[in-house]
Write a structure and sequence with these properties.
Shape: globular
Oligomer: single chain
Helix content: 10-25%
Strand content: 25-35%
Distance between the termini: 47 Å
Radius of gyration: 20 Å
C-alpha cells in the first residue's frame, strides 16, 4: 500500500532517524500530470513529495453512510469525528477513516462538498465543490506544502492548498473554494446533537485498519512537524493546537492551552461578538496507536453570540454552556437543549483546530488571543 511510505517516514522522524532528504526541497514529478504548471502562484520548489504518489492515498468518491446505532459497535463515544450540518442534514466523518483517505467527495442537502483532513496539520476543512457552476472532484496529490495536504481536482488537475482552499498551481490558480463551517467533536457529541444524523461507513471499498492510528505519537507538543521547512513563528510551540477563527480579512488564534483552561472565551472579531467553546468529551486521533486509548483533548466550537436582539454571555457547566441571560443550556454544536431558548442554534463561524505551525504558515498576520 503506497500510503505506508509516509507513515514509515513519519516513524523515522519521530524516532530521530529520518534521513536528510525529509527536509529537501523536492520538485514534483510532472510526467503523470495534465496540470498547467506554468500557471501558478507559488514557487514549485515549495511542493514536497510526501511519500505516496498521486492517488496513493485514495479519496472516498462514493461514500456510504450508516445510522448512529449501526456505527456504535466500531466507533466509541469519545472518538473524534468531523461534524458537518447543512440545513436539516448532518453527517459525521470519523477521523479513524479520514486519516487513511484524507478526502471525501459527495453531496449533502443538494450541496456538493469535499470533506478534507490533513493529519500532519490536524486540519479538518470542508469546502463546496461548486466552482463557477462546475462541480469538481478532488483527490490526494501526494504532495505537501508547508506539511499541509495539497489536493488536486480531477477535471483540470490544478493543485489546491487544503488549509486555505486556494488553487496554487494550474488552470484554477487564484481561485478559492467556498468554505463550509464544520467542527471536530466526539461521536457521542454528534449523536446527541444530531440523533438522526448519519456516519461515514467503514465500507469504503478499501482494506484499511480503521481504528488504528498510523501516526501514533505525532500529537505531542514537543515534536517537530513532519517535512516542514516553511516560515517559523516564535509565538507558540509549532505543535501546540490553536482554535483558528476567520472572519472577513481578520484572523485570530486561541491556543488550546488557554481555551481548555477557560472553557468559554467571549471576544470580538471583525466587529462581531463571538464566543469560543471548549468542552471535554473527545480524544485525539493522533496520540495512541489505538484511537480510543488516546488522551483527552476536548472539542471546540466558535459561534456568534447574538440571538435575535440579545447578546449572550456563557459559563461552562459539566460539558454544557449556560447563558447568563436566560439560563438555557447549550451544546458544543451551538444548540440550546433546554431553557427559554430551547431549539435555537447559534450561528457557527469558520474555524478549525490546527497545529499552530500549519495555521501560521498560511496566515502569518493572525492575532493570538491572550487573556
Amino acid at each position: 500500500m503506497p500510503f505506508i511510505v509516509r507513515f514509515i517516514a513519519l516513524s523515522l522522524l519521530l524516532t530521530g532517524t529520518a534521513c536528510g532528504q525529509s527536509t529537501d526541497r523536492l520538485v514534483a514529478e510532472r510526467s503523470d500530470w495534465q496540470t498547467e504548471w506554468d500557471r501558478r502562484s507559488i514557487d514549485l520548489s515549495e511542493l514536497i513529495p510526501g511519500g505516496p504518489p498521486k492517488d496513493g492515498i485514495p479519496s472516498i468518491d462514493d461514500p456510504s453512510f450508516v445510522s448512529i446505532q449501526d456505527a456504535r459497535p466500531w466507533l466509541e463515544g469519545k472518538e473524534p469525528v468531523i461534524s458537518l450540518a447543512i440545513e436539516d442534514e448532518a453527517r459525521a466523518y470519523p477521523l479513524q477513516i479520514m486519516t487513511y483517505h484524507e478526502i471525501a467527495n459527495h453531496e449533502l442537502a443538494d450541496t456538493p462538498v469535499v470533506v478534507s483532513f490533513c493529519p500532519l496539520c490536524y486540519s479538518a476543512v470542508v469546502f463546496s465543490r461548486d466552482v463557477g457552476g462546475e462541480v469538481l472532484t478532488f483527490g490526494v496529490s501526494g504532495l505537501l506544502r508547508h506539511s499541509d495536504l495539497v489536493m488536486f481536482d480531477r477535471q483540470s488537475e490544478s493543485l489546491w492548498q487544503q488549509v486555505t482552499g486556494e488553487a496554487i498551481v494550474g488552470g484554477y490558480t487564484g481561485t478559492t473554494l467556498d468554505r463550509i463551517p464544520a467542527q471536530i467533536i466526539s461521536f457521542a457529541q454528534f449523536a446527541e446533537s444530531y440523533p438522526d444524523g448519519l456516519v461515514l461507513s467503514r465500507d469504503t471499498g478499501y482494506d484499511r485498519p480503521y481504528g488504528r492510528n498510523p501516526y501514533a505519537g505525532y500529537d505531542d507538543v514537543g515534536r517537530r512537524p513532519f517535512l516542514y521547512d516553511g516560515p517559523t513563528d516564535e509565538r507558540l510551540p509549532p505543535m501546540e493546537k490553536v482554535v483558528a477563527v476567520e472572519s472577513g480579512e481578520s484572523y485570530k488564534a486561541y491556543p488550546h492551552s488557554v481555551t481548555r483552561e477557560r472553557r468559554v472565551i467571549h471576544d470580538e472579531l471583525d466587529g462581531r461578538a463571538i464566543v469560543v467553546f471548549h468542552a471535554d468529551g473527545a480524544v485525539s486521533a493522533l496520540d495512541a496507536a489505538e484511537i480510543p486509548s488516546s488522551r483527552e483533548i476536548g472539542s471546540t466550537g466558535v459561534f456568534e453570540r447574538s440571538v435575535g436582539e440579545r447578546t449572550l454571555h456563557f459559563d461552562y457547566d459539566d460539558g454544557r454552556f449556560v447563558d447568563r441571560e436566560t439560563g438555557s443550556r447549550w451544546t458544543i454544536t451551538g444548540e440550546a437543549l433546554d431553557g427559554p431558548l430551547r431549539g435555537q442554534r447559534l450561528t457557527p463561524l469558520d474555524h478549525g483546530d490546527y497545529f499552530s505551525f500549519a495555521w501560521f504558515a498560511f496566515r502569518p498576520d493572525t492575532e493570538i488571543y491572550t487573556p
